[in-house]
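Dear all,

This email documents one entry for the complex benchmark we are building for the journal club exercise. For each entry we list the sequence lines for every component of the assembly. Then comes the predicted three-dimensional structure of the complex as a token string, followed by one or two observations. Please use this as the template for your own entries, and keep the labels exactly as they appear.
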Amino acid sequence: MWKPGNMLYPLPAVLVSTADRDGRPNILTVAWAGTVCSVPPMVSISVRPERYSYHCIEETGEFVINLTTAGMARAVDYCGVRSGRDVDKFAEMKLTPCPSQKVKAPSIAESPVSLECRVTQALPLGSHTMFIAEVAAVSADEAYLDETGRFRLDRADLLAYSHGVYYRLGEAIGKFGYSVEKKPRPGRRAPGGGKTDGGKK
Ligand SMILES: Cc1cc2nc3c(=O)[nH]c(=O)nc-3n(C[C@H](O)[C@H](O)[C@H](O)COP(=O)(O)O)c2cc1C
């Protein structure tokens, strides 16, 4: 038995980009992030008030969640151990800030998907304040669109974080709903992919 603690893994480790009131951009790494509602689309991030980014989020009510890839792992770690008070993390990690569609905080061009967020509630919980936010816009890297126009996030080599260690996602072992899909009878053609909604709940 252990004393109570957080052992909810694996998690995505995301790069949260912000801008202060003067428009100066910053990035912090966040693992305490989650999806909290489908309609309207809402997410949460939990941030310690000591973080430089905390005040940018509090002041502007905006941030961008940028998904991360294995190739971005070093930047993910760096943005989680250095503060924007002391360094320009975009410059140090050679990440490219690009204008967002709906919020002033920049998105990160190297990220496969960026969720532009507007804070609706700030819940002080203890060590962390949970910012609950509506997703105002989503941008995705065209490089992951296949010939048919489908977005292939499976090709993005996404990064996961588990108990202090970064991992790349491994082999796909099933898709949404596969446990109840009808198996094709011998001699029949397999059904065309089954009914899925791409993971939306
Ligand atoms: C993998 C990882 C996950 C992290 N998750 C969080 C988190 O969920 N919330 C938080 O407040 N800080 C988290 N941190 C720490 C901040 O990213 C770190 O303190 C950062 O330097 C803050 O930057 P800032 O001062 O420029 O805002 C995490 C760090 C790492 C390396």
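Observations: The chain has one domain: 14-168. The longest strand covers residues 113-124.
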